[in-house]
Amino acid sequence: MIQQWLNWRTALVITALCIVSGTVFYSHYLSQKLAIEERKKVEHWIEAQKTLLNNADTLNITLASRISTDNTDIPIIETDEKDRITGNYINLDSTRIKSDSNYLQHLVSQFKGQNKPIEFVLSKSPYVANKYYYGESKLQQEIKYYPYVQLLIVALFIIILVSAQRSTHQNTQNSLWAGMAKETAHQLGTPVSSLEGWLEVLKEIPGNENIVSEIGKDINRLQLVTDRFSKIGSTPKLEVKNIVYQVQYMMDYIKKRAGGHVSFSLNTNGEKEITTLISAPLFDWVIENLLKNALDAMEGRGNIAINIQRINKAIQIDVSDTGKGISKANLHKVFKPGFTTKKRGWGLGLTLTQRIIEQYHKGKIFILFSEPGKGTTFRIFLPA
Predict the structure, then answer these.
(1) Which of 24-38, 63-77, 242-256 has the lowest mean pLDDT?
(2) How far apart are CA 131 and CA 85, in angstroms?
(3) Strand-by-strand arrangement of the 127-134 sheet
(4) Are 370 and 377 within 8 A, CB to CB?
């Protein structure tokens, strides 16, 4: 499925590039062709000006006047042989000319870069000539910028298609997650219920008190896992809970299983109660995943520190360890399904953690800091 998505996206990009490239080349061809026609039009206009100045023939004057007035879109400025503006120009903004004394000179400089001027020699000795600088017509400008407009439209089209495809892909993934979680909870429910029944039987047999106690703990653990998966597969109910208590509870739970070479610290910045809406089983799962990852990264030796504080209308939770850290090449992969650096595991812990925080609790989780050999800090933001 991923390969099909990549092939489809590649084909779409190649098609769009071909369309845009073809348009650019064709627009360039039209622009050059139009430039030749516009130069001829300017030459005809100059000839018409000569006729109007030097010819007494009424018919020629009438024809020259018509040619002269037909040019309504190509801006032209007349200068002498030293590029001094004579005051003869057409198709320019008269308001700008009156308000800005440098406007005409600025246009002459601009037109020099667009087209080679046309010279009309009045006298060879002494040399006297008029130069005619002309710019691009509106049609020429539209042809020039049309490929860029089309490129923008095609880019927007591709972005919309890719966004729609990603949204569809994400919805499909969400459905699969929900279905898998519900099925897992359903499959676990039957044996857990059976184990509870057998536990009651064991309680009635003298001498099994220690065994019953330990089995009871394992069954409670299985019930917790089942409850978590059932909530992942549906919209969990959020309740007002004390974040400090929830974090402390999970830290104590992990501490008992961490060994004596790992130290834990919790800093609440002087607050004993910081409340917000959470699903307690799912939030506990988040903290458990982060603490277990920290333990794996430290390989049984190091420090784990959790810092909780209120910041404006949010609750900030930092989980830091002194483990082996994450390389820069892997930072963007951490929350992706299937990614893991451990020999065992499915690489779903942090994916589920991100889903729980961002989709169910409308918060944010990301890696604040990580450096190989120095450790990692995960930061969680929850709405207060």
Answers:
(1) 63-77
(2) 9
(3) 85-90, 76-80, 127-134, 118-124
(4) yes
3-state DSSP assignment of residue 129: strand
Q: Is pTM beyond 0.85 here?
A: no
Q: How far is CA 291 from CA 244, 303, 304, 357, in A?
A: 15, 11, 8, 16
Report the chain's C-alpha Rg in angstroms.
39
Closest CA to 247 of 178, 177, 196, 318: 318
User: Angle 321-325-328 (CA atoms, 0-180°, nearest 5)?
Assistant: 140
Domain with CATH 3.30.565.10 in the chain: 236-383
Q: Which helix (H) or strand (E) covers residue 259, if one does?
A: none
Greatest extent of the chain over all pairs of C-alpha atoms, in Å: 135
Number of other CB atoms surrounding residue 43 within 10 Å: 14
Give the residue ranges of DSSP H helices in 299-370.
349-355
- What CA–CA distance (Å, rounded) separates 306 from 268? 8
Fold classified for 236-383:
Heat Shock Protein 90 (3.30.565)
The answer to whether the CB of 225 falls within 8 A of the CB of 188 is yes
DSSP 8-state assignment for residue 300: T
Work out the pLDDT band at 60, boundaries 50, 70, 90. Answer: low
Tens digit of pLDDT for each residue in 318-362? Answer: 999 999 998 888 888 888 776 676 655 555 678 888 888 998 899
